[in-house]
Amino acid sequence: MNLRYLVFLLLSFFCFLYAENSTLFIDNSGSDGKPSMPNLNIHASALAHNKDAVLEFDSSSESDLRKHKDNISFKHTDEENTVSEDFIWNINNQLGGKIFGGKVSIKAYLKGKEIHSANLLIRGKNPTAAQVRKYIKDNCGTHWYAWAIAQHESRQHFNVFNQFNTEIYVKISGTPNHGAPDGWGIMQVDSKRGSEITTDEVYNWQTNVLSGIKVMDGAKREAQAYFNAVKRTFPDKWEEPPASFTPHNCKTKLSALDAAVIQMYNGAAVVRRLKTTFGTYTYYRSAWQFDENAPKGSRWSFKVNNHDYVYKVIHNELEGNLKSND
Fold this sequence. Notes:
single chain, five-stranded mixed sheet, 7 helices, 25% helix, alpha+beta, three-stranded mixed sheet
């Protein structure tokens, strides 16, 4: 039996036979890389026709940063007196397809008293670079550069597309890839988007990728709203943004909108109070500065943020100037 993929906990006269502290792995070995949980089966003969016996499943994150956000807890009993001696409790079915990881405890109780427990770890394996690139390209919409953002965001030295920490971090290998202040997974999806990061985004790389693309969608709407607001505010001074923009020391030409979206995924460099469609004023964000007092034809300038993010995504990742093991 391969205990990396299967735990078989045999209850017989209230005794477990198991490998204590085994580490199991979320797997992505299918052709499409879709994550799947390890197979958790419990042979629950101790429950047979015993209403006083209870099995309890609990899991929680290994990371203090996640606190209680990834906790899962549920029980199995024989309240209807229908469990036979060969009953198998399929935990995966009760989980309903959830993808999660962390510290797992499975306990047996008799008349409210704990009689035994199994303690496990569930960690994750990273998908292949080919799987990630294909999935992103199939789902990126207008964001043709999304795979390069993902490669940059998830990079650990030369290892890229890491939903989970790689072997270079021996003690935490297989735990979720976290970057300050609250970025998680391949796309380093961050709660600054306005909503909490979900368990599925932390452990399911495909969900994480789709969430990152949604952030880009929002950045694109915001970037276009800024251009529209500048035009409303300065109708007599307005001129179209540059037809193309090439980051310093790069060869790739970007549209003004794409350049803004890439940078705003990491953080805007321009914030300005502009006129809304209602005639009031509010603040808009962008990567482009408009100087209404500059000579015609030179009123737009690209403002690099503190991380020089567009350069890193285009030069290092998209143009392949930073080595990657893929």
